Amino acid sequence: MRRAWPAYRTLWIFLLLGWTVSAADRALTGPVVTWMIENEVGFLAGVEKPYALAGLIGGLFFAGYMLTQFPGGYLGDKYGHRTIIVISLIWAGIATIISGVITGLVAFIAVRVITGLGEGAFYSNDRSLIAEQTPREKRSLGMGVVITGLALGITIATVFAPNMIGLGGDVFGGEDAWRMPFLILGAATLVVGIAVAAYFRRQEPGLPYGRALVHMLAYSAIGLAAVMAVYFVGDAAGLSDLWIAVLEVGLALGLVAFVFARKQGELAPVLRNRDLMLINVAFIAVLWNLWFFSFWSVSIVADAAGSSFGRSALIAAFNAGAGILGFPTGGWLSDVAVRRGIGRKPLVVAFTTLQCVLTVIFGFVVAGGGANVWVMAALLFSASTFFNAMQPIAQAMLADIADPAHHGAAFGMNNLIGEIGAVLSPAVSGALRDATGGWSTAVFVDAALIGGAVILFLLVREATGGEERPAGRFRRARSLTGSSSTA
């Protein structure tokens, strides 16, 4: 007798599609601005430090993205995770299309910030819905399979950016060729968002989209005003693009402090949990690495190997494409390790260490100059495979440790803190490229941060046997035993 197809696997497929299009939308900026720098067109023509400015544009997207991480998870706990996922996808689709229509640097930055604000609500609700709907013994596999969409999306944006730009040149002319990728991928995101909404409607009719959207718009309006105010003040004061990015991180840290002050009673299981915070801080390095290579890999390959834009994009895709193998494999190995009593932590530490070593080797290859593109491809693929494999394992550790009632807030806080790396990485790396004339220094900085993440993961106390550690259960245990220890 054939076993019925479980509903949670269908959920995985739809969430994977959501990850694919949203990741393509956010990863697209890197190849596009690289093409603009090489061809001296658009708002990057004639700029004194084009890599720093392009990095700032990428960083400001993530400034918006990070500011809705925690509110998005909080609203998901309040209105339902499915509700926020649909709003996030449709919002991102519309904003990405607008990115390809507007003209001028400031307007482009503002629309990319708005895009980030919408996409920022996806992660915490996607992770929470998987944890809620998937059997615990397959939780890490589910997170790995679904987040494979991140690798697919980045690969699509990296590999096909030259083709989409070429089509844009045929339709709009050379100066406006960069618009076409945003129009194509924005439309694809809208289609997926509508499909996901239809699927969720069959599962749970009458989702409160209106109320949730109004609440999310309120948070996003404040976030947009804050991000753009920091940009305008920094620009007026003559600060460098790097320092403006640093100020944006300060804005995010201010949000964390605000959350601690206002929600510490309600969300104490998330905000005061030592092990959750260790994972969260480690994810600064994780997100730094992810968006350093996702944003700049085409330029790194082109500089180190002297290859064309199209060929560099193809080689750089080995970094993104490794996630297609790494994400599901890491998730599967994590669940196997839990069933055998090994736990998730040893795999997280081992994979992150291997990635760090391979990144150092890649840095020496870049520093040597005249690099062989296939050696670079092999190193990018190998390091990225271990990097992508550790992510669903670490996310499953977080789900095991956090109170299930606060999964949305826990994942939101995780990505809010982690996105500090995503905001700084493109800008800092671009500034280092302008200052040194090469990419090796930026690669070694990335490797050092990953080494720091290894140390933080070593300090995490994993939930025994992969079991969840709800705060309520531990409070009851302490009341019975008189212990004063915390979860």
Features:
single chain, 487 residues, mainly alpha, Growth Hormone, Chain: A, 19 helices, 0% strand, disordered C terminus, MFS_trans_sf, MFS_dom, transmembrane
Low-confidence stretches: 465-487
Shape: globular
Rounded mean pLDDT is 85
Strand content: under 5%
Question: What Rg is obtained from the alpha carbons, in whole angstroms?
Answer: 21 Å
The first-to-last residue Cα distance is 44 Å
Number of beta strands: 0
What structural class do the secondary elements suggest?
mainly alpha
Name given to the CATH architecture = Up-down Bundle
CATH fold-level name: Growth Hormone, Chain: A
- Please report the first level of CATH classification, the CATH class: Mainly Alpha
| Tally of individual helices | 19
The percent of residues in helical segments reads over 70%
Task: Kindly report the name of the CATH homologous superfamily.
Answer: MFS general substrate transporter like domains
Main sheet: strands, sense, barrel? none
- The structural domain count equals 1
Order of helices and strands: HHHHHHHHHHHHHHHHHHH
Transmembrane segments: 50-67, 79-98, 144-165, 177-200, 212-234, 240-261, 281-302, 314-334, 346-367, 373-390, 411-432, 438-460
Membrane topology: Multi-pass membrane protein
Protein name: MFS transporter
Subcellular location: Cell membrane
